[in-house]
What does this fold into?
Amino acid sequence: MSNKETIQTWTEDGVGVIQLNRPKVLNALNRKMVTEILQTMEEWDRDDSVSVMIVTGNAKVFAAGADIAEMAEDDAISLELLNQFAEWDRLAWVKKPIIAAVNGYCLGGAFELALSCDLIVAGENAQFGFPEVNLGVMPGAGGTVRLTKLMGRAKALEWLWLGEYMTAKYANENGVVNRVVAPELVFEEALKMARKIAKQAPLSVRLIKESVNKSVDHSVYEAMQFERKNFYMLFASEDQKEGMKAFVEKRKPQFKGK
Ligand code: DAK
It folds into this structure.
C-alpha cells in the first residue's frame, strides 16, 4: 500500500487499485488528487505487472465532486492558465481497462471521472448527479457530452438542469453503469471483473478498448476500418498463435501480452 497526499494505491493479482482518500470532505477532488490519479494511471499503464485498474472511494462515498472551496475564487483566465483539462484529457489515453467502483455520492467532477472510466460497478446506495447547475456553473470535464451519449438528449438535459441525483438502479436501467450490487460487495465485484479481464490476452483487451472508443466518436465506416486494422494487428502477436494453438490442443492458453 502506498499513501500519497490524496489517494492510497496498491496492487493485487495484476489489478492496480486507486482509493480516493480525502474522507473529511467526502473525497472532493482537488487538483492534487487529479494529478496523483493521472500519475498513478500512467505509471501502471507502462507497468507489465498491472493489467487492469480500479478507482474507488470508501464504503460510504465515491466523491462529492471537485473541491468547491479550491475552485471558489477561480476566474476564467486563471482556469485557462492552469490548463487542468489537459490533465483530465490524458485519462482518455490510458490504454488499460479502468473500472470505477462506486458507493454513495458520485457527483459533478467525480461522476465525470467515473464516466471516463470504462466500466462502473455501483452499490445500491450510489447516487449519481451533476449539481453544478446549483453552483452557477456546468460540467466541464465531459459531463454534458458523455451523459448525453449514454442517455440521449432529453434525459441528459433533465438531470443536468434539475441537478438531482439518480439512483444506481436508474443509472443501470439507462446504460450509465454496468452492474449494481449490495454496497458491501461493490469492491469485491469490481475486483472479480478486473481479475477476469486481467487473465485475458492483454493485447486483445487493449485493442478492443481502443476500437470501442473509436466507435463512440467516429462514423460506422471509419470505426470499422479502424477495427479491421486492430484485428489484423492481433494476428501479428504471439498471443494469437498461442490462443488458437491452445484451442486446437485442448489446453489453456498462456498469454504473454506480446
Ligand atoms: N468540495 C469541497 N468540500 C466538500 C464538497 C465539495 N464538492 N462536498 C462536501 N464537502 C465537504 C463539506 O463542506 C463538509 O465539510 P465541513 O463542513 O465538515 O468542513 C464535508 O465535506 C461533509 O459534507 P456535508 O456536511 O455537506 O455532508 P452532507 O452529508 O450533509 O451532504 C452532499 C453531502 C454531497 C449532499 C453535500 O456535501 C454537497 O452538496 N456537496 C457538494 C456537491 C457538489 O455540488 N458537487 C459538484 C461540485 S462542482 C474542472 C474539472 C471538474 C470540475 C470543475 C473544474 N477543471 C478541470 C477545471 C467539476 C466541478 C464539480 O464537481
Q: What stands out?
A: Residues 25-26, 28, 64-69, 79, 84-85, 88, 105, 107-109, 131-132, 135, 140-141 surround 4-(N,N-dimethylamino)cinnamoyl-COA (CB under 6 Å). Residues 43 and 50 are 10 Å apart (CA to CA).
